[in-house]
Design goal:
- The complex is a heterodimer of chains A (323) and B (247).
- Chain A is α/β, with parallel strands linked by helices and 323 residues long.
- Chain A folds into two domains: 179 residues, HUPs (Rossmann fold, 3-Layer(aba) Sandwich); 122 residues, Rossmann fold, CATH 3.40.50.
- Chain A is built from seven helices and 17 strands.
- In chain A, the strands form four sheets. In chain A, strands 7-10-6-1-4-5-11 form a seven-stranded parallel sheet, with helices on both faces. In chain A, strands 14-13-15-16-17 form a five-stranded parallel sheet.
- The radius of gyration of chain A is 21 Å and the shape is globular.
- Chain B has one domain: HUPs (Rossmann fold, 3-Layer(aba) Sandwich), CATH 3.40.50.620.
- In chain B, helix 2 packs across helix 5 and helix 3 packs across helix 4.
- The longest helix of chain B has 16 residues.
- Classes of the chains: A alpha/beta (323), B alpha/beta (247).
- The complex binds flavin-adenine dinucleotide and adenosine monophosphate (AMP).
- Flavin-adenine dinucleotide binds next to helix 5, helix 6, strand 16 and helix 7 of chain A.
């Protein structure tokens, strides 16, 4: 059995969870087994996972699991993995998985590949590809343990629909009081936007935009295609933008389909966080800006002139698509 | 209260990465090794601040690495901290590394174990959570702020799409990132003092490696940027739709 951790966000599933199930389904077909999705926390939506290829759905509808507590999560996942005889456990490699998957792996003495970008090659052992050295190389990791834990990079595998009729099987886990040692005192979630780690479209601004008062034109560009905003480090350091938008070596690492960099020079530490993006568009007034070397498309000129034009073109395109 | 800070070496981001032996080994000739930035700027500096504030009594640093990790651990000692431990083994397997750290920690009585949020070379972001599991401790990841109040900590941390404030009794493991502290530069006094500070070399505990890197590959070069005229943004949009197929 392949066990997939299907993460909830405020009671509904994240796209990343569907990607993980699609990944597990393809792997299951390859190694001739089935997929079991595990849901931790309360939702009335669990049955919807059958549309993505889960043969079995197990839900631990314990209200204490509505927040991520790594010890309790790991305990529940390890319990179900053992019960279902799982030989592979799949996560989507976001902040939650980074805190939970290694605990599960350590408990089960299972080899872990964090940040997989390929289906395992099972022709000679079990080898998974991942991106290393900030996108400068790939490593092929051989997993030798019986149980394997794979945490896949968000946006690396398309969501696939595959209807399998299934019921949701409720399950209870006996927790100890100290499984919930970390208390959540307050939560502040940015609502209504796709988090950067999962965003398919990202528009990002650098020091070239001169000051926080100029972000309006970047926001307009972003909302014309429903993109999430990001920024370079000096922009976050100067408090022009919130820290969670900062990408690069010291900020977040992202892998969107489209990354539009506006007024960002393309320093290596910035590229470290974004150069795995599928398509990169660079808007810069300096023809020598290093970012052009990492770009697929470039526009040379003043961002203040270009952005309104590009926003118009995107809007026209969207209107034509909706027509 | 003693704090253990987990430190690893990493190639400076500006270093060119190359491989040898038919792409099976990292070619470390010419690699400039630095302290993994999250370990240095955030985990270590915050631990030092807690000591300076009289909250922690000792700051220990541990690295799992061969002799080539010593310059990096000496630099960490120059920033402050009381002693360093080097587990004399080299591995790319997170379970192996975490086991070494956990086994050493079991011989001590650390109330707080700090790691960086991830190493910038392999980017696993796994060691902290594994150490926590092996020691049966709570774990808080991606922390941006850490205060110790008596027997518990108050932590701000990044979550998917936002931020959370957590509290938790000691002992626990925390992975640290930006916001936690400001980077420091070692001074001459620190560098001199580091020479006489203890650097214990400890043989590794027996443990199997569960993963191995068989070989490496480098991404295909970009074929070159296609420049679009500023007056022709419709064309850029068309290319993004028809050629790149991303919108
Ligand atoms: C250890 C370390 C870690 C780091 N981590 C990160 C990180 O995580 N993320 C990160 O981003 N940086 C990081 N940095 C900083 C990095 O080296 C660069 O300094 C930073 O990325 C530069 O930001 P920028 O491109 O916004 O600004 P600048 O380098 O100042 O570039 C501004 C760009 O805007 C262009 N421009 C100016 N006006 C206009 C206009 N009107 N229209 C169009 N273009 C215009 C200029 O030509 C220039 O290319 C790190 C540095 C170090 C040493
Ligand atoms: N070899 C090592 N020795 C000591 N600590 C390590 C080692 N590798 C990683 N760490 C710690 O674990 C954190 C996360 O690393 P990783 O899980 O490898 O991305 C790092 O920021 C370090 O604090």
């Amino acid at each position: 059995m392949i066990l997939v951790f299907a993460e909830l966000n405020n009671g509904s599933f994240k796209k990343a969870s569907f990607e993980a199930i699609a990944y597990a389904s393809q792997l299951a077909a390859k190694i001739n087994t089935q997929v079991c999705a595990l849901v931790l926390g309360e939702t009335s939506d669990a049955a919807s996972l059958s549309a993505y290829g889960a043969h079995k759905i197990i839900q631990v509808a314990d209200a204490r699991l509505n927040n991520v507590e790594t010890k309790a999560y790991a305990k529940a996942i390890v319990h179900v993995a053992s019960q279902e005889n799982a030989n592979v456990i799949v996560f989507s490699n976001n902040i939650t998985a980074k805190a939970v998957a290694p605990r599960v792996a350590a408990k089960l003495k299972a080899g872990l590949v964090a940040g997989a970008i390929s289906l395992p090659d099972v022709s000679n052992g079990f080898v998974v590809k991942k991106s290393v050295f900030a996108g400068k190389a790939f490593a092929f990791v051989q997993v030798s343990s019986n149980v394997k834990v794979i945490s896949i990079t968000p946006n690396s595998f398309p969501v696939q629909k595959a209807e399998v009729p299934t019921n949701v099987v409720p399950q209870t886990i006996e927790f100890a009081a100290n499984d919930f040692a970390v208390k959540v005192d307050s939560v502040n979630k940015v609502s209504g936007i796709v988090p950067l780690s999962e965003a398919e479209l990202v528009v990002s601004g650098g020091r070239g935009l001169k000051g926080p008062e100029n972000w309006g034109i970047l926001e307009d560009l972003g909302s014309s295609i429903g993109a999430t905003l990001a920024c370079s480090r000096p922009v976050a350091d100067s408090h022009w933008r919130p820290h969670h938008e900062h990408v690069g070596q010291t900020g977040g690492t992202i892998r969107p389909n489209l990354y539009i960099a506006v007024g960002i020079s393309g320093a290596i530490q910035h590229l470290a966080g974004v150069n795995s993006s599928k398509t990169i568009v660079v808007i810069n007034k300096d023809p020598e800006a290093p970012f052009f070397k990492a770009a697929d498309y470039g526009v040379l000129g003043d961002a203040f002139e270009i952005l309104p034009k590009l926003t118009e073109s995107f809007k026209k395109f969207k209107a034509a698509q909706n027509a | 209260m003693n704090i253990l800070v987990c430190i690893t070496k990493a190639p400076d981001t500006t270093t060119k990465i190359a491989f040898s032996d038919n792409n099976t080994k990292l070619n470390d000739a010419g690699i400039q090794w630095i302290i993994n930035p999250y370990d240095e700027w955030y985990a270590l500096v915050r631990a030092l601040e807690l000591k300076e504030a009289g909250i922690a009594t000792g700051v220990h640093m541990i690295t799992v690495g061969k002799a080539d990790a010593e310059p990096v651990i000496r630099k960490a000692l120059a920033l402050g901290g009381d002693e360093a431990i080097r587990i004399d083994a080299d591995s790319n397997d997170s379970f192996y590394i975490a086991t070494q750290i956990a086994e050493y920690a079991k011989t001590q009585n650390y109330q707080l174990i700090l790691t960086g949020k991830e190493s910038i070379d392999y980017g696993n972001a796994s060691i902290g959570a594994m150490v926590a599991e092996l020691l049966d401790m709570p774990f808080i990841t991606h922390a941006t702020k850490l205060d110790v109040n008596g027997n518990s900590v108050s932590v701000n941390r990044e979550i998917e799409g936002g931020e959370e404030t957590n509290s938790c009794p000691l002992p626990l493991v925390i992975s640290c990132q930006k916001g936690m502290a400001e980077a420091r530069i070692p001074n001459m006094r620190g560098i001199m003092a580091a020479r006489t500070k203890p650097l214990k070399v400890v043989p590794p505990a027996t443990c199997d490696e569960l993963t191995t890197i068989t070989n490496y590959d480098v991404p295909a070069q970009k074929t070159g940027v296609k420049m679009i005229d500023i007056e022709n943004m419709d064309e850029l949009v068309r290319l993004l739709h028809e050629e790149a197929k991303v919108i």
